[in-house]
Write a structure and sequence with these properties.
The chain has about 325 residues and is α/β, with parallel strands linked by helices. It is built from eight helices and 14 strands. The chain folds into two domains: about 110 residues, 2-Layer Sandwich (Alpha-Beta Plaits), CATH 3.30.70; about 170 residues, Rossmann fold (3-Layer(aba) Sandwich), CATH 3.40.50. It binds S-adenosylmethionine.
Length: about 325
Amino acid sequence: MSHPLTYQLDLILGTERPANLREEVKKYLVSHGFESFVEGDISDIEIDYDWGHDENLVTYLGALQTAPNITLYRYDEKELLLLKKGIEETFQGKVSGRLSTIKTQDWQEGWKDSFKPLRINEFFIYPPWESKSPHTEDLSIMINPGMAFGTGSHATTKLCLKSFSHWYAEHKINSPTQPFHVLDVGTGTGVLAIASKLKGASTVVGTDIDPDSILAAQENAKANDAELFVTLGSVKEVDSIKPAPKTFDIVFANILLPVISELFSQLVKKVSPQGALIVSGIIVEQENDVLALAQKHSFFLHERNEEGDWLALVLKPKN
Ligand SMILES: C[S@@+](CC[C@H](N)C(=O)[O-])C[C@H]1O[C@@H](n2cnc3c(N)ncnc32)[C@H](O)[C@@H]1O
């Protein structure tokens, strides 16, 4: 294990707290790039993420919304020390931070009950403490989530994989020998990028603004023997990766709508003329917002997949 210790920052909300303090702290975290945290602590992690619908809050790691603390787990102590200082200065007397360490193994124990192998079409995603699929026709992907998003169990990840499977089947009918390239913006654990590589993509590039995700994606790529080009950043940083093509046959963006809207004009430029943009992280009511963006950039809706409140849209350029 490359990180034997995990740093834990408990943000303790004072007992005399104003009603909106919890929401204010969560907003602070998200706006400072800390999108994964637990309301409560490791014993409260639920894998069925509570991903805020109000476009601002992202609580990736489960929620116990009455807990007196919000907890972050990271490998980087400095990052948490800076956050502790920032929070204590911003919420003077109302929130205090307590930094401690736990064994990374214990942190992983916290996941074990909730992260079980799962099958999504031909993909079989399993954690390091389980076994790969006994069926040789399955594409087994071992994912160690570390601190990143992407165990495969969130509806948006599943929808992306399903959309990709369909695209792949069509692609093979239309251009059986044509190689294909994939870009995964917001790669998290690298699950979509690794799935693409195992499916035969020639070049796969993944980016993420979260350093822990980059680390997780790199380690997962290695564990699956999948060559990925992973870099810290977003769409603009793709051009700095030298073997990366100018455009890609598949561009994934499983991120929330505000981020997708902001990046949309850059994302569409990365899609090859015959390619597709697979966007998820969108809730059903937001579909028209995305379709308006697509229309504006001369893309059309090729396929739509839905699970619960969530959507993945496959958009293609009007040629
Ligand atoms: C919902 S997770 C998706 C993870 C994985 N692709 C999956 O499908 O399971 C979204 C990821 O996007 C990253 N992210 C957020 N804003 C971003 C941006 N502007 N550019 C690149 N990545 C971003 C987050 O750090 C997070 O890892």
